[in-house]
Design goal:
- The complex is a heterodimer of chains A (about 375) and B (about 140).
- Chain A is an alpha+beta fold.
- Chain A is built from 8 helices and 15 strands.
- In chain A, about 20% of the residues lie in helices and about 20% in strands.
- Helices cover about 35% and strands about 30% of the residues of chain B.
- Chain B contains 4 helices and 7 strands.
- Chain B has helices spanning about 5-15, 45-50, 65-70, 80-95; strands spanning about 20, 25, 30-35, 60, 100-105, 110-120, 130-135.
- In chain B, strand 6 (about 110-120) and strand 7 form a beta hairpin.
- The chains are: A alpha+beta (about 375), B alpha+beta (about 140).
- The interface between A and B is medium-sized, with 31 and 24 residues.
Chain lengths: ~375, ~140
């Protein structure tokens, strides 16, 4: 159950809201959060991009607020205009994946989409709020498997660079950041194709805006913003999410949405203009990327012994690679302070590192 | 022409036209491995690792119940299509359960995961049979 009457119908005064943001975020900005904020208020802190309302007659902009995420559901498209959620390390756990189910809580008169409505369509049931972002508790994972959280996504995008950015967000969350994420989809022209008897619209592109709040939790003009727009087709399966970086302002123009409407105007303007680029803390040599879908490319067998500067910290940790700091000639083990983070460096197996003359950092 | 094991014929017919639901939809394809193909593997997990070309540690097993539950156990929102498919998945599961130590074996971490649902053939042949499919988990 969720409370539709908890919606803010107009933005709270900026100063008060900023204070609430700081207070609310401080408690979740801790490095090892035992309890993540899984309540309705926490999921929509960046605003209401299309001024959706909880009036069931507002069928193209129907506001749904759950503890796990907020969304503006569009009954005409059969998927959300946007879904917004907060991501912290405490949201990520080991719950087994739930099952796809129709969302029976949509108001009467709305078309209920079932998992079968996507079968043989040529498109994936693409999660807006991903499963792994809500994997700490079974009831939270169940909520993201409701079909109202799905949009037809080309497999090459869904399992390719879209998944790559989803993984990167969780990596940032595990490092202690609080992420505010909004995702949705758009059209390049007025007409669009549909799938199935219930005519589920097929979008031309998917977009996402990620605001990375630092460990203190404060959302301000200093926050990193990752905005992407990815074409909804299979040709991009081997591309990296970094190739689709844009600004929130460009996404506003492409979708008629407004981001950050509840933030102070100067902060909103600053965040809208940000275009993500390689950060100082992550060197060019270690920019995270997606791995190609299984079964394709030369790495199928695990690429043993191959040095790689294209892996994310998570992927390299899984492979048991060490991180060689090329400037110092010393290497770091997974989980250590500078693993994957020095300015000049690369991942490789420990055997290769030693063979090349690199030495382990003492006292790890 | 090699003789097609009767179990493989049964699996082909049981899986014909079925699609396993994950984020994507995938066919289930019947397979048969000889003892040689699996390098004399003593367990289905080892057989899968050998044929998939990965180490055993990269293979995770899941019970038949667990793997087929979403497709075979009726849900209150199921319509006629789902019920029909559900019955067919029950049959497929039963056929697979007739193989020894059968389970679903997942290879790798995703987002695309090959799943081999295999068991040892009854008797001394050392062969394995089953079906292969794929799930998408992002």
């Amino acid at each position: 159950m969720y409370h539709r009457d908890m919606i803010l119908t107009r933005p709270a005064r900026p100063r008060l809201l900023a204070a609430l943001l700081v207070l609310g975020s401080l408690s979740s900005g801790m490095i090892s959060p035992a309890h993540a904020e899984i309540n309705e208020k926490a999921q929509m802190l960046l605003g209401n991009p299309d001024k959706a309302t909880s009036d069931s007659k507002n069928k193209k902009h129907f506001l749904v607020r759950r503890p796990q995420f907020a969304m503006s559901y569009n009954d005409a498209l059969r998927w959300p205009n946007w879904v917004s959620w907060k991501l912290d390390a405490g949201d990520i756990g080991r719950e087994p994946r739930s099952q796809f189910q129709p969302d029976s809580s949509l108001p009467e008169g709305y078309t209920v989409i079932t998992p079968g409505d996507y079968t043989r369509s040529g498109y994936d049931r693409g999660h807006n709020c991903p499963s792994a972002d809500r994997s700490a508790r079974a009831e939270d994972n169940k909520a993201v498997f409701l079909m109202s959280n799905m949009t037809p996504q080309a497999h090459g995008m869904n399992a390719g660079p879209w998944e790559g950015l989803e993984s990167e967000c969780r990596t940032l969350a595990r490092r202690g950041h609080s992420l505010h994420i909004i995702a949705g989809h758009g059209f390049s022209s007025p007409s669009y194709g549909t799938i199935g008897k219930k005519k589920i619209a097929v979008p031309d592109f998917s977009w996402k805006v990620v605001v990375v709040a630092p460990k203190s939790g404060k959302v301000d003009a200093d926050c990193r913003v990752i905005a992407v727009r990815m074409p909804n087709n299979n040709t991009i399966s081997k591309k990296r999410w970094q190739e689709y970086v844009t600004t929130a302002r460009e996404l506003e123009k492409a979708t008629s949405l407004t981001f950050f409407d509840v933030l102070p105007a100067n902060i909103a303007a600053a965040l809208r203009a940000k275009k993500d680029s390689d950060r100082k803390e992550i060197s060019i040599a270690s920019s995270p990327s997606t791995t190609p879908p299984q079964g394709s490319g030369p790495d199928k067998q695990g690429g043993s012994g191959a040095a790689s500067s294209e892996l994310s910290i998570e992927e390299a940790t899984k492979k048991g690679f060490v991180w060689v700091n090329l400037s110092s000639g010393k290497y770091w083990m997974p989980g250590t302070q500078y693993y994957g983070l020095t300015k000049r460096g690369k991942f490789m197996s420990e055997a290769d590192a030693r063979a090349a003359g690199y030495v382990a950092v003492k006292g790890q | 022409m090699p003789v097609v094991k009767s179990i493989v014929k049964a699996l082909r017919s049981a899986s014909k036209g079925l699609l396993y639901t994950s984020e994507s939809d995938a066919k289930l394809t019947a397979l048969a491995w000889s003892a040689e193909q699996t390098g004399g593997a003593k367990t289905p997990l080892e057989a899968v690792a050998k044929v998939a070309g990965v180490s055993s540690s990269e293979v995770k097993s899941v019970s038949l119940e667990n793997f087929f539950d979403p497709m075979a156990t009726p849900q209150d929102w199921w319509g006629e299509d789902e019920k029909e498919t559900g019955t067919r998945f029950q049959e497929l599961k039963k056929t697979l359960a007739s193989l020894e130590d059968s389970a679903a074996f997942r290879v790798g971490d995703g987002p695309d995961i090959d799943v081999y649902i295999v068991g040892r053939d009854p008797g001394d042949s050392g062969g394995y049979s089953g079906v292969k499919t794929r799930v998408t988990e992002t």
